[in-house]
Amino acid sequence: KNSRKLRVLLAVEMWPSGRALVIALACGFASALGPSTNTRALCSMACQKALAGAGAAVKVNVTAQQTCEDHCQGLALSSAGLGASISSGCLLTYERWYNDSTHKNDPTLHEAVFSSADMPTSLTISAQSLAHIALYGANPTEGFLGLGDQIIKDYGNYDACGLVDGAQYCVTSFHLSRSSKYGPFGTCVPNECSPSDVNGLWELAANLTALAILSGGTHASYELGGIMLKMPSIAPFATQCGDKHYDYTAGSYVMITLACIFAGLVALATALAYAQRNGWFHTGCSPDDEGSYVMLKQREAKAEGTAGEGDDMDMGAQQQQQPDQEIVKVQPAPKGFAMRMVDAFSLYTTLGEWAKTREGAPTAALDGIRVFSMMWVVFGHTLLWPLQSTGYTNEGEIVPFKGADHAVMATWSGQAIQSAEFSVDSFFFMSGFLASYVALKKLRGSSPLTVAKTAPGLYLHRYLRISPLYFIIVWFYYEVVPLTTASSPYFDLTVEKQFCKDNWLKEVTYVKDFWPMDGLKCYGVSWYLSDDMIFFWFTPLLFAVFFWDKLAGYLLPVCGAIASIAYSWWAAYHFDWRLGTFDGSKYQPDYYVPPWTRCPPYLIGIVCGYFYRDWKQNNRSLPSGSRLGCLVDAALLVVSFTIMGACVYGAHSDAQDVPGQMRDADNYAYIALSKPAWSIGLAIFAFLCFELRLPLMARFLSLSV
Predict the structure, then answer these.
(1) How many helices (H) and strands (E) are present in the chain, helices listed first?
(2) Stretch 356-383: mean pLDDT
(3) At residue 685, what are phi and psi to the nearest 5 degrees?
(4) I want to staple 365 with a disulfide (CB 3.0 to 4.6 A). Which of 335, 505, 525, 689 is the partner?
(5) What angle in degrees, to the nearest 10, is found between the helix axes of 347-354 and 250-277?
(6) d(CA 623, CA 635)
């Protein structure tokens, strides 16, 4: 049975047969026999021989001998029950694969090895990370770890494993704490191996890799090897084998039924609208008339006077004036419930409403800004999300490990992609701007008490506008999407689904971002909606103050933004938030999500909405038609682009290495100031577009397509 365990290791990794490594493997095999004195002596002897073989410069002294004995004793004790942790069926299949590859040239073993992660490399880099944490107190963020020259995850080759007869694909991870994660690591193992068997294989690999490292004979190798021997106990292995399958639930059936009903209503309503447009039946008005139709009414005009008897008698008759045509707009009879339903679900109506732009409105350029912001979000996620999930096969070309200046994330164009965070601030700014700009128009002349009384209606209106569609999307994502995806061990929503069920009240009330870690756990991208809704709750108060005293109305959001910036600056210093993706701080949950740190762009938008409404009501305009006007336009444009450019590329130096190299003071200042600064730069640019001081750009951003 112990022979099988050794063959399992060889089958899993096919390690090279260097002298020191062979001694270490023999030591590991000997230690696996049991925690006897003879076994420990054999292990210690092999360890010391490995040290001696490392080179004449290594002096084997009493300390080194004692180190070997200590490590071998720990290894023997930890390996005592290893035979029982790997089932006989798994061992027998591995033995058959090994014999077939040796004597029958059967490629099954080699195909399985090709499809699996590199166990020694993965374990070694993980142990280096653990040592780094022990020495420097680093706290790697979940899903990210960049030490050595790769991120600590290796998926192997899932598709290749699927082609191996009698094999299954397993994913193993191990966690030092809730915030640090190593893996996943993919292995292609026989169907007879259970997840606990695979855990046993990783433990065996960790023990033998540790002895191989010890053969280096240096102080660093002693420390690293010692940590690796302890890995199974301080960072337990967790394995999942086979594909992740999802069964139909009551929620799935209900969601699919609702989706089918909606699809049927859309198809039926669109067909009825098409028939109406083609004259197959009539309802009293044309669908092209937008709720009214135009008719011509003939009216005879009175003659200004009767012609004299002698005037134009040769004509034989009086000239008569042509009747005038008066255009009268007549409202048709109200549509019945059935036709209103047709309009609500018809693609002729809904697509038109969805694609409608503010043509002719001074703020129409915001539509184009919104489009490019959405594109920027998608672009940024396309680059960064694979690093959090499946990873890249050429991560060295993406991530600047060891200062690789050719890596995408270290280039100027790569920095522009990573700076897609600012597109979220663009949305916050536009949301705040439109909230105040529109509210001041609708509530003009209202008293503060009247504004306060409108708050419940405003809350209900916004909730009903957003929530039904949002809830359907989340429901569809968790109940239907998993049923349509190809089977794999990667797409696992079990934990997220359960979290949504347990915390549904936070979700439907949009308060989850008050618990920042929760904001990313149930349909994580919806954290933005939660923040935006929380910001909106405070707008009636801000508007009431504005109608009470205009100066106070301006100062209140300004003071709120300053307070948020000050807190972010202090917290970045106090909690050592780091901007770099791989720097291992809590920047994402503690700064990027909470509403109290993300509110400045929204508040700046509120102030800009006040300003522009006042600007239009007072008929103000920038100087034009003169050298002064051109200078003002150019100066504002330069200021805007300089601010936004500094935000996008201000962290370029931090992206040149892993971890980032930005000075602490610069890092803290950038975190606190960059997003408010971006909003100010965007506000200046939008103002120039509103005033048509950048006519080509304003018209481009205002295009309906």
Answers:
(1) 31, 7
(2) 87
(3) -65, -45
(4) 689
(5) 100
(6) 13
**Residue in the block written with tokens 């590329």:** 649
What pTM does this model have?
Answer: 0.76
Other C-beta atoms closer than 10 Å to the C-beta of 401 total: 19
Tokens encoding 348: 């002729």
Interatomic CA distance for residues 81 and 33, integer angstroms: 10
CB atoms within 10 A of CB 595: 22
Rounded to the nearest 5 percent, the helix, strand and coil shares of the chain are: 65, 5, 30
* Per-position b or e across 342-379, b if 16+ CB within 10 A of its CB: bbebbebbeeeeeeeeeeeebbbbbbbbeeebeebbee
Q: What value does the mean pLDDT take over residues 641-655?
A: 93
User: Between 64 and 259, where is the model more confident?
Assistant: 259
More confident residue, 291 or 124: 124
Q: How far is CA 105 from CA 100, 102, 160, 190, in A?
A: 6, 6, 19, 18
What is the length of the chain? 705
Q: Of 520, 336, 363, 540, nearest to 448 (Cα)?
A: 540
- CA–CA separation, 8 and 1 (whole Å): 10
Rounded CA-CA distance 700/226 in Å is 64
**What is the C-alpha to C-alpha distance for residues 584 and 524, in angstroms, rounded to an integer?**
19
Amino acid residing at 430: M
pLDDT at 420 over 70: yes
Most confident of 199-208, 228-237, 588-597: 588-597
> What would the two tokens of residue 291 be?
């709720």
Tens-digit pLDDT profile for residues 311-353: 433 434 444 444 454 555 555 556 667 777 778 888 888 887 7
Burial 602-620 (b: 16+ CB within 10 A, else e): bbbbbbbbbbbbebeeeee
What is the dihedral sign for C-alpha 196, 198, 201, 202? negative
Burial class (CB in 10 A: 0-12, 13-18, 19+), 123: buried
Q: CA dihedral defined by 507, 511, 516, 518, rounded to 10 degrees?
A: -20
Rounded to an integer, what distance in angstroms lies between the CA atom of residue 205 and that of residue 120?
A: 7
State the average pLDDT over residues 412-434. 94
The C-alpha atoms of residue 691 and residue 514 are separated, in whole angstroms, by: 39
DSSP one-letter string for 370-410: HHHHHHHHHHHHHHHHHHHTT--TTGGGTS-GGG-TTSGGG
The CA radius of gyration of the chain, in Å to the nearest whole number, is 36
pLDDT > 50? residue 37: no
> Highest mean pLDDT range out of 126-135, 168-177, 284-293?
168-177
